[in-house]
């Protein structure tokens, strides 16, 4: 258990530090790499919470495939973005942003620390996640839920992917026609 | 004593706030977009903590959806940013003045 | 609990698929449009709009059959409702996408839009996302539906690739809208944590069975969740502290898309807002009410005052859509059954008149996307009496003049507010409507009582945009491949700059669309009882 706690605090420190890195590095490439570290640390959080399958796809798909695409674009555009779109020179904007951030974080932390979960309401018995995982295994429990009770949102994601493909086709085309 | 749910939620809230801050203060759309990804992932951590401590599968499913949505958003968002960059060679949002007025 | 099955064993049956028949037909139409695009030669892409319209009509028929004969239950493990409120919203969304499609042929070619197959398919897919969001009875479907419609609209906003204004509108919309989605999603996460449910009916059952204290128990989590969800939704409906993106995106996007999204997004977001706040979380009405009350007041006042200063009619309509969101928020704040009925009536009325007004703006617009300012409308009645008459009807309806449908929308919303104990909102609504009167009637006045623009001024302004136009034809042809090569010369030739003022030319589809919008605005205004009854019926059978 102590090991668990140490792991949590180390991961939390890594996650927060890398998140700060994302928003404060001058270079977009460093921000990007920092974001990947952040996503990896979240994957370890997921593993700690016994979501083995989601932790794995977080690494494979998110930190892997999606971020590689992102990194590709960032490195392609980075030289140009660094010259013009680096850190904002407006100091007051940082000040105001940090002020707002402290208020937001304060409110949220207050809420989540004081609030308790709906423990009495959660699904127990056959619907309980832990029981299903014990019964079928981690990936199987995920799959059973995804293809039974949650098949409809899963189907809609196919529409989402069709739109993403259309978007890439439409926007990725070389720009034709006149420029105003 | 295992790590309580509020600890996970606190980390999630801090990450979400950092992401929000990034969108507000940075002017490079790529970094703003990364900050949005940061926000979505912070929410995923909350979902995961809730799913675990509520013993409910809905949170897992939500994370799966958010992953898919984020992937689709990355494709479309990067395509828009690249198309703007190609024509202007500048993607600083402060320089996007055509729409002012 | 309605849901007896376990999430791990539930299997959808035929009845589930029947309940989402309107959505399925629309999805099928979108895919057929994509396939037909491959077989359609470049000059004949108008047929794709026709296929899309057939899909919309089929979907509307399915929705009508379900409205009359459906069981009004939810489908797919309580994910999506086929209740009458959802079907009524489907009608309004289908009306707006149908009119958007009618306005598109001719206009899109004039704006130099290529890749029309994808354009029409994305319009239909955006409408599909709106229908999902409006029918959602689970937080998950609200989120995914929202993302489906948003992603399609990001692309459509940026569709005029040759125009930096359009691309920037797409990016601005993308960044700000995903930012707001983050807030909405976090709100959903905290609500899920507080109630242990994502199903809205289950949330409602939980709220009914558990004592709510704002300081202890699940209360703090729920309050934070409510606040974050309110922020997300207020952004999506462009309510006032979160409205900054609206005018820029509405002006920068192709006008046919703006017309469609200004209505469709509102229908989807308001239905979802009503289902979350007025149905699932009605028992904590007193907790969230003050926040949305303040947003509603700010939106009505801010939207109307900012609209007064605009000289560009498209921009004015954008601010007017913000103001209208304020009136719709009154209904959500009131939260009674009558208010929900009033919301549906207002949305339907708004769809007819607002799409019509954008349709006229689209007809007047020049090929470079400018030319919808008050000066361009000056004296329009002399060149285009029919167009001016249609615009006058839409604007008078937006202003809330009695025999038109817009009046009934306002009437029922204010009536519901007064009965529901929000007299102050009704008073503010009426007062701000008077401000609205001014900027709507100013356009009417310009069309009928102002001299047309002096001949010299347009000559200069068109000359200044002339140089890029001839250069564009070879540039686009060389970069474009065979299909574009065929299409482009015709596109460029049509809006050739003229010395004298050129009265706008309308495609037959746009005339049909405008005639339809006028008919709806007038007929539903004179004989409102039928559709008001349908809306009341819909609001009373909303799943709870």
Provide a descriptive summary of the structure in words:
The complex is a heterotrimer of chains A (180), B (101) and C (544). By secondary structure, chain A is mainly alpha-helical. Chain A has helices at 2-24, 28-48, 52-84, 91-114, 129-136, 138-147, 151-172. In chain A, helix 5 crosses helix 6 (138-147). Chain B has one domain: Orthogonal Bundle (Helix Hairpins). Chain B is elongated. The model of chain B has no long low-confidence stretch (mean pLDDT 86). Chain C is 76% helix and 1% strand. Chain C has a two-stranded antiparallel sheet with strand order 1-2. Mean pLDDT of chain C is 86; it is low at 455-500.
Level-2 CATH architecture of chain B: Orthogonal Bundle
Low-confidence runs of at least 5 consecutive residues of chain C: 455-500
Question: What is the approximate shape of chain B?
Answer: elongated
Number of alpha- plus pi-helical segments of chain C: 24
- Tally of DSSP helical segments of chain B: 3
> What share of residues of chain B is helical?
over 70%
Give the structure's gist in a few sentences.
The complex is a heterotrimer of chains A (180), B (101) and C (544). Chain A has 180 residues and is an all-alpha fold.
Q: Layout of helices and strands, plus pairs?
A:
The complex is a heterotrimer of chains A (about 180), B (about 100) and C (about 550).
Chain A: H1 2-24, H2 28-48, H3 52-84, H4 91-114, H5 129-136, H6 138-147, H7 151-172
Helix pairs in contact in A: 1-2, 2-3, 5-6
Chain B: H1 5-25, H2 29-54, H3 58-88
Helix pairs in contact in B: 1-2, 2-3
Chain C: H1 14-19, H2 21-39, H3 46-69, E1 74-75, E2 80-81, H4 84-110, H5 116-135, H6 139-157, H7 164-195, H8 200-209, H9 219-236, H10 245-252, H11 255-280, H12 285-308, H13 313-334, H14 337-364, H15 374-377, H16 380-383, H17 385-399, H18 405-419, H19 423-449, H20 456-464, H21 468-480, H22 482-493, H23 508-526, H24 529-540
Antiparallel strand pairs in C: 1-2
Helix pairs in contact in C: 2-3, 2-5, 3-4, 3-5, 4-5, 4-11, 4-14, 4-23, 4-24, 5-6, 5-11, 6-7, 6-11, 7-9, 7-10, 8-11, 9-12, 10-11, 10-13, 11-13, 11-14, 12-13, 12-19, 13-14, 13-18, 13-19, 14-17, 14-18, 14-23, 14-24, 17-19, 17-23, 18-19, 18-23, 21-22
């Amino acid at each position: 258990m102590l090991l668990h706690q140490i792991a949590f605090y180390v991961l939390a420190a890594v996650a927060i530090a890398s998140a700060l890195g994302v928003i404060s590095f001058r270079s977009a490439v460093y921000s990007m790499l920092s974001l990947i570290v952040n996503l990896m640390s979240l994957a370890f959080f997921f593993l700690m919470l016994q979501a083995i399958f989601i932790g794995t796809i977080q690494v494979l798909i998110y930190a892997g495939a999606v971020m590689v695409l992102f990194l590709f674009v960032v490195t392609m555009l980075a030289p140009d973005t660094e010259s013009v779109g680096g850190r904002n020179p407006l100091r007051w904007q940082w000040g105001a942003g940090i002020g707002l951030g402290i208020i937001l974080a304060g409110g949220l932390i207050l809420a989540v620390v004081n609030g308790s979960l709906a423990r009495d309401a959660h699904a127990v018995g056959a619907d309980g996640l832990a029981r299903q995982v014990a019964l079928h295994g981690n990936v199987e429990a995920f799959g059973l839920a995804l293809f039974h009770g949650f098949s409809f949102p899963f189907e809609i994601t196919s529409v989402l992917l069709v739109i993403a493909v259309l978007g890439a086709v439409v926007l990725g085309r070389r720009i034709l026609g006149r420029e105003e | 004593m295992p790590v309580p749910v509020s600890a996970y939620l606190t980390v999630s809230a801090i990450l979400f706030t950092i992401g929000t801050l990034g969108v507000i203060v940075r002017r490079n759309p790529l970094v703003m977009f990364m900050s949005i990804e940061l926000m979505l992932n912070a929410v995923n951590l909350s979902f995961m903590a809730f799913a675990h401590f509520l013993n409910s599968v809905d949170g897992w499913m939500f994370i799966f959806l958010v992953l898919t949505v984020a992937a689709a958003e990355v494709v479309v968002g990067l395509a828009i940013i690249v198309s703007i960059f190609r024509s202007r060679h500048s993607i600083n949002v402060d320089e996007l003045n055509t729409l002012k007025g | 609990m309605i849901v007896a099955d376990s999430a791990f064993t539930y299997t959808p049956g035929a009845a589930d698929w029947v309940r989402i028949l309107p959505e399925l037909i629309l999805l099928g139409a979108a895919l057929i449009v994509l396939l037909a695009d491959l077989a359609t030669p470049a000059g004949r892409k108008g047929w794709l709009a026709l296929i899309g319209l057939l899909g919309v009509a089929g979907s509307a028929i399915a929705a009508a059959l379900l409205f009359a004969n459906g069981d009004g239950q939810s489908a797919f493990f309580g994910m999506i409702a086929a209740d009458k409120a959802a079907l009524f919203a489907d009608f309004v969304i289908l009306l707006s996408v149908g009119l958007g499609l009618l306005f598109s042929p001719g206009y899109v070619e004039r704006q130099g839009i290529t890749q029309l197959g994808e354009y029409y398919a994305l319009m239909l897919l955006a409408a599909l996302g709106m229908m999902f969001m409006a029918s959602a009875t689970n937080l998950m479907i609200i989120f995914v539906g929202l993302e489906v419609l948003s992603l399609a609209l990001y692309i459509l906003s940026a569709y005029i690739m040759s125009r930096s204004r359009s691309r920037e509108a797409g990016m601005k919309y993308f960044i700000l809208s995903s930012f707001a989605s983050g807030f909405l999603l976090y709100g959903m996460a905290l609500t899920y944590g507080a109630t242990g449910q994502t199903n809205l009916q289950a949330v409602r059952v939980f709220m009914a069975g558990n004592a709510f204290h704002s300081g202890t128990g699940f209360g703090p989590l729920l309050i934070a969740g409510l606040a974050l969800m309110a922020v997300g939704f207020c952004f999506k409906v462009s309510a006032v502290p979160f409205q900054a993106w609206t005018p820029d995106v509405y002006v920068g996007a192709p006008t046919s898309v703006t017309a469609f999204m200004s209505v469709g997004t509102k229908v989807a977001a308001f239905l979802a807002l009503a289902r979350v706040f007025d149905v699932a979380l009605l028992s904590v009405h007193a907790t969230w009410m003050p926040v949305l009350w303040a947003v509603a007041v700010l939106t009505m006042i801010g939207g109307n005052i900012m609209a007064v200063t605009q000289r560009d009619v498209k921009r004015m309509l954008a601010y007017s859509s913000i103001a209208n969101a304020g009136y719709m928020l009154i209904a959500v704040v009131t939260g009674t059954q009558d208010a929900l009925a009033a919301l549906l009536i207002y949305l339907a009325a708004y769809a007819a008149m607002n799409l019509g007004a954008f349709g006229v703006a689209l007809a007047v617009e020049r090929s470079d996307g400018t030319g919808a300012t008050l000066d361009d409308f000056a004296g329009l009645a002399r060149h285009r009496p029919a167009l001016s008459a249609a615009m006058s009807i839409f604007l008078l309806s937006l202003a809330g003049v009695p025999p038109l449908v817009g009046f009934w929308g306002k009437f029922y919303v204010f009536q519901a507010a007064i009965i529901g104990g929000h007299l102050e909102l009704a008073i503010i609504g009426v007062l701000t409507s008077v401000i609205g009167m001014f900027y709507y009637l100013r356009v009417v006045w310009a069309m009928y009582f102002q001299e047309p623009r002096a001949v010299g001024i347009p000559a200069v302004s068109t000359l200044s945009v002339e140089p890029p136009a001839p250069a564009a034809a070879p540039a686009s042809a060389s970069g474009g491949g065979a299909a574009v090569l065929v299409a482009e010369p015709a596109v460029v030739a049509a809006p050739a700059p003229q010395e004298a003022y050129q009265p706008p030319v309308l495609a037959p589809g746009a005339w049909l669309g405008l005639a339809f919008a006028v008919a709806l605005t007038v007929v539903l205004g004179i004989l409102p009882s039928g559709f008001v009854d349908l809306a009341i019926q819909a609001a009373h059978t909303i799943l709870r």
